[in-house]
Amino acid sequence: MSLLELQNNHSSLAPAPLVDLAGVRMVYPKGDNTELVVLDNVSLTIREGEIVGLLGRSGSGKSTLLRVLSGLVPATSGSVRWRDAPVSGPCEGMSMVFQSFALFPWLTVLENVEIGLEALGVPAAERRRRAIEAIDLIGLDGFESAYPKELSGGMRQRVGFARALVVHPRLMLMDEPFSALDVLTAETLRTDLIDLWIEGRLPIKSILMVTHNIEEAVLMCDRILIFSSNPGRVAAEIKIELPHPRDRDDLAFRQLVDDIYARMTQRTPAEKAEKRAVDGLPGTGINMVLPHISTNLMSGLMEELATPAYGGKADLPELAATLQMEVDELFPIAETLQLLRFAEMAEGDVQLTDAGRQFVDSDIDTRKQQFAEHLATYVPLAAMIRRVLDERPSHRAPFTRFSEELEDHMSVADAEATLRAAISWGRYAELFGYDEQAGEFNLENPA
């Protein structure tokens, strides 16, 4: 048999993918003849026997993708197939574990776990047997009669896992299932889940999990799909070939975490072409979506970077571990400092610029003056607000003067958050003021 025949024979024996997405696009109308593109040209495949992680920032469309994949919402365009059949509604053979537990407070643990089987028409005796089996498997034996209010957060999430497992799904979807838990509880639950997976005791074929925790993804997954934001796209795929159980202190583990941080701080070719100031902040000019990051957090991060421990430059994973922050918490602060030219991010590192070092070494009044200069120079929205206030005889302008303009280019929620960020930064810099009661921008001391 020739090599080509061997290859063709192997391909014919390979199982069909559980999930196959091709060119999926998800667009929401905004009501003003514009559209919000959440997902764009997303393609991915999931096969039996693997844990796949969707890793990306909040707002990158990961949770939306889960809902499209499971048939809860239809894609605007593209192909979504489950076990080689088009998805046209909720898919039998999938189950989901949510971030928020989503338990019925008036039902006991046993009743919460049974409810999915009841919806499938499983007889009562069989429901009870399978529910007790799932409860025992997930480590809640003895709590069958307890109500959710009597359980800790970790125990409630175990009920969520039992409810997802009791239907014996082929694919279990997990939407940031550990993010609402404290660090120790989340670590215990992750470890227990992986142990059950390795031992082959879970009645499932594959897992697809959404996370923004890089270490969590490397700890659990066989493959990681890195999502870029605005709109959500698969920016990279990384195979994790480390054996289980995985050691966070292992050199290969740390290197993978570092590599992923570096990938998530790289600018795409499109972003470089547009000369965006910051990777991760969508839009250009006044249409840039701004994260509502306090100046205290910005100052604190610059001061931490300036300590002898870092000397002005830090490895992002190391810094995150020291500050006990996750990627969704640390990146927006570092990106905002980059936007304001107080820091730069590249290859998984963040480094103070000369301006950032000067800021750290200055007194409060000098810091405010420097921040005002950078805010007016590098944040077009702040410069426009100041210009409008300068030009008006009253030196006042309503919130809606700017929010309505922003809503032509972004969602209402993003416009609100962006203006709130500008208000916070403008007040600190004394570039302009804002009267909350009147809902107006103002110049307290117009030039």
Major sheet: size, sense and barrel closure? 6 strands, mixed
Determine the CATH topology of the largest domain: Rossmann fold
Which CATH first-tier class of the largest domain would you pick?
Answer: Alpha Beta
Adjacency order of strands in the biggest sheet: 6-7-8-3-9-10
CATH superfamily of the largest domain: P-loop containing nucleotide triphosphate hydrolases
Rounded to an integer in angstroms, the radius of gyration calculated over CA atoms is 25 Å
Helix content: 40-55%
Number of strands: 16
Which whole number gives the mean pLDDT? 84
By CATH, the architecture of the largest domain is named 3-Layer(aba) Sandwich
Tally of domains: 2
From the spread of the alpha carbons, the general shape counts as globular
What is the number of helical segments per DSSP (H or I, 4+ residues)?
A: 17
- Strand content range: 15-25%
End-to-end Cα distance: 86 Å
Model regions low in confidence, pLDDT < 50 over at least 5 residues: 1-13, 268-280
SS content category: alpha/beta
Give a nutshell description of this structure.
With 447 residues, this protein is of the alpha/beta class.
List keywords for this structure.
alpha/beta, disordered N terminus, six-stranded mixed β-sheet, 19% strand, globular, four-stranded antiparallel β-sheet, 2 domains, Rossmann fold, 447 residues, single chain
Model description:
- The protein is built from 17 helices and 16 strands.
- It has 447 residues and is an alpha/beta fold.
- It folds into two domains: 17-263, 3-Layer(aba) Sandwich (Rossmann fold), CATH 3.40.50; 285-442.
- The strands form four sheets. The protein has a six-stranded mixed sheet with strand order 6-7-8-3-9-10, with helices on both faces. Strands 2-1-4-5 form a four-stranded antiparallel sheet, with helices on one face.
- Helix 3 (109-119) packs parallel to helix 5 (153-165), helix 4 crosses helix 5 (153-165) and helix 14 packs antiparallel against helix 17 (412-429).
- The longest helix has 18 residues, at 412-429.
